Amino acid sequence: MSEMEPAPREGEALASLRKADVWTGLVLAVVAAAMVAKALTFPLAGTYAGVKNAWYVSPALFPLMVGGMLFALSAGLVARALRDYRALRPDGHIFGVSLAVAGGRDAVLIAGLLAAYIVGLVPRTDFVVATALFLLVFMGVYVIASRTGRTVLVALIALPSVSALAVAVGGGWPAPRSGGQFAADGALAVVLAAAALAFAAFARGEERRRIVPVLASAAGTSVVLSAVFKYGLLVPLPREGAGVFLMDGVADRIAALFG
Fold first, then answer.
1. CB burial class (10 A; 0-12, 13-18, 19+) of residue 103?
2. In 3-state terms, the chain is what percent helix, strand and coil (to 5)?
3. Which among 103, 133, 105 has a CA at the least distance from the CA of 118?
């Protein structure tokens, strides 16, 4: 056997990983395409109340950028994974997914988490809080080994997402920055705190060393991403609620200090 060729068992493991990558990339590409399609229904420019809005402050810009980047990265992942899979298993059948194997479960899990975040939370709840919750759950389910812990984390994003979608479909979702909106954002913040506590509670052994990095990454990425788009690129966030309201207060204080 050549030194460059993987051992049979190792080759099978690599092929399974590449097959999972293909399905994951396809799921992400579909989500990205749906995000772009929805964003294209938003006005890119126009005149409102006598004020002409330029394309770079359009509410469509943020989802278009995120969806476009996600689609490009997904396409690259699929292409690379297909090439590697064909090299490892020339006669293998890649388009067959089973929930009995890790690759199939991962594809379904990723699709479900993205759907909960993009369809249920982002259009209706504060972007900062919703993004922090999504990132915490997304990272947490791949850090902890406890099946119960993973189930709890998934439930903590699925339940508020389904609830928000159901209320919105019924026509009862509150207006942006209203008292009802802030109440919904507060409830989601409580869910975020519960997810953080659950993640810490179910972590075992070496997993505990990743509690702080995961929590910091989820919160930090959410805040920095929101700040870059809102204050740097002047792009409105999909839903600006309690979290963005607090960020506006901090931004005003910083502006006053240096103004």
1. buried
2. 75, 0, 25
3. 133
Chain segment 42-58, per-residue pLDDT in tens? 777 665 555 566 666 67
Place of tokens 């954002």: 185
Q: Which helix (H) or strand (E) holds 163?
A: helix 147-169
pTM, rounded to two decimals: 0.70
Q: What is the pLDDT of residues 233-247, one digit of tens each?
A: 777 788 888 888 899
Residues 6+ apart with CB under 8 A from 200: 208, 211
Separation of alpha carbons 73 and 27, rounded Å: 12
Pair 88, 14: CB distance under 8 Å:
yes
Token pair, residue 107, equals: 């594809």
Contact in structure between 13 and 84 (CB atoms under 8 Å): no
The H or E element containing residue 176 is none
Residue 37 has pLDDT above 90, yes or no: no
Q: How far is CA 50 from CA 41, 47, 61, 218, in A?
A: 22, 6, 21, 40
3-state SS assignment for residue 142: coil
- Which residue do the tokens 């194997």 mark? 101
Residue 91 CB-density burial (10 A; 0-12 exposed, 13-18 middle, 19+ buried): exposed
* Beta bridge pairs of residue 48: 51
d(CA 34, CA 177): 27
Helix (H) or strand (E) holding 53, with range, is strand 51-53
Q: What are phi and psi of 248, to 5 degrees?
A: -60, -40
Q: Is 206 exposed, middle or buried (0-12, 13-18, 19+ CB in 10 A)?
A: exposed
Contact 136, 144 (CB under 8 A): no
